Amino acid sequence: MKVKLFMNMIDRLIINKNSKQKITIILVVILSLIISACNQTTTATPVIEKTILITQIYTEVVYTATPEPTLTPMPTQSPTPLPTSTPTFDPYSAPIYYPLENCVASRLHVGDLAVVSPGGGPNGIRYGMDLYYDTIVAYAEPGQQLNIVGGPYCSHGWIVWLVQTMNGVIGYTPEGNGIEYWLLPTK
User: Fold this and answer.
1) Distance between CA atoms of 48 and 25, rounded to whole angstroms?
2) Are 147 and 115 in contact (CB under 8 A)?
3) Taking Cα atoms as reference points, which of 119, 126, 115 lies closest to residue 156?
4) Are strands 113-116 and 145-155 parallel, antiparallel or unpaired?
5) How far apart are CA 64 and CA 148, in angstroms?
6) Cβ pair 98, 106 in contact under 8 A
7) Measured over all CA atoms, what is the biggest interatomic distance in the chain, rounded to whole angstroms?
8) Residue 169 has pLDDT above 90, yes or no
9) pLDDT digits (tens, 9 = 90+) for 90-122
10) What's the CA dihedral at 37, 40, 45, 47 to 10 degrees?
11) How far from 70 is each of 55, 64, 66, 67, 184, CA to CA, in Å?
């Protein structure tokens, strides 16, 4: 577009001027074309190169040898449990009485053979008759027989007996709380 415009201008000048002026005009036009061409800014268009990355996944199954069996140690012998008895009669059919004021009822007496209730947990045997202190020295397991050697005593409304286990431990343990009974008569 610019070139046509310059050419038209040159043609008009050439027609009207002498040859020396014509050459000067032509040179001026050529120089202005060169200068205008140099002043143009060109923007390069970015060339995007496409890269293709090919990967390969390789799975290898490795078989391992079966480990050799190890010997299992022989079990150690556990101590022989103490003999226990299961009541042959209904211990709840034994008559109840109230041996101490402000305490629950009892079915036991001094000299009785009692058994720890098979349906409950172990009875704590204490060195003191107050049940609120942590004075447990041993446990009588469910089904274990105990001799009633002293009592009864009242501890916070519960009947407490002095008992002796079959292996000689002597201490205090509760008979019950009035709702549940943990020591039952055997006859």
Assistant:
1) 46
2) no
3) 126
4) antiparallel
5) 67
6) yes
7) 158
8) yes
9) 777 788 899 999 999 999 999 999 999 988 889
10) 50
11) 45, 18, 12, 9, 49
